[in-house]
Amino acid sequence: MTTVLNTFSLTGKVALVTGCKRGIGKAMAEALAEAGADIIGVSANLEPEGSAVAQAVEARGRRFFAYQADFGKRDSLNAFIAQVKHDHPVIDILVNNAGTILRKPAAEHPDEYWDEVIAINQTAQFILTREIGRDMIARGSGKVIFTASLLTFQGGINVPGYAASKGAVGSLVKAFANEWAGQGVNVNAIAPGYISTDNTEALRADPARSQSILSRIPANRWGEPEDFKGPVVFLASDAAGYVNGTVLTVDGGWMGR
Fold first, then answer.
1. Residues 2-58 pLDDT 10s
2. 257: buried, middle or exposed (CB in 10 Å: 19+, 13-18, 0-12)?
């Protein structure tokens, strides 16, 4: 008999997690492995062997396959896609987590900041989803999960390129879902709130800004990477079979506030 808990199992699945070396991506890879999936991990500087994320996945009895790619460079992205599709003909779950943030006021935001952020956070994610998703459509099944942001809904401060890229992620999720939901492929996103990761180090180091942010979080704490384990397993599993085009906020209540 199939129980509701069984629908969360990812046994026998293969998940590709981008930006998995640390933070939210690492926690997501660990969670998917705990649920039964083997993990393909890629980051710009991921160690070929012995990385912390590899050790965590393998400690959970699953296989880990490491790749390096610079998603800001089209040649590197395309080479990675060709190699990973050759090595792993079936990828059941794609987690588009890789991203970057560059801070500078809008009036001083240089072209190179804009170009780098858009290339990594938006263009690379579209191309990777298109190429991996094409195979999912052919099989009639697959799960795609993007990492969005509170700035999918808001404009932020001093991060115009990042805000634009994350706003685009929200629209990409809907665009892919509109075309692929009827073909057995679920496309959704998780929008982190303010999380204790490298990306928010500058904010947490500023006492006034940190307190201003914390005062607006109903849960009264910064989030942790572990807060994304349950949401990513849910969206990657059969439990979310009728969830399409959704951006799930994991923000301690920020958006409700």
1. 899 999 999 999 999 999 999 999 999 999 999 999 999 999 999 999 999 999 999
2. exposed
Token readout for 208 is 């006034």
Distance CA 202, CA 227 (A): 21
162 included as an active-site residue: yes
Active-site hit among 67, 113, 162, 194: 162
Q: What is the radius of gyration, based on Cα positions, of the chain?
A: 18
Q: Are 210 and 203 contacting, i.e. CB atoms less than 8 angstroms apart?
A: yes
Q: How far apart are CA 76 and CA 43, in angstroms?
A: 11
CA-nearest of 22, 146, 110, 108 to 41 is: 22
Looking at residue 12, its amino acid is G
Q: What is the pLDDT of residues 42-52, one digit of tens each?
A: 999 999 999 99
Burial of residue 68 (number of CB atoms within 10 Å: 0-12, 13-18, 19+): middle
The structure's pTM equals 0.95
pLDDT tens, residue by residue, 122-136: 999 999 999 999 999
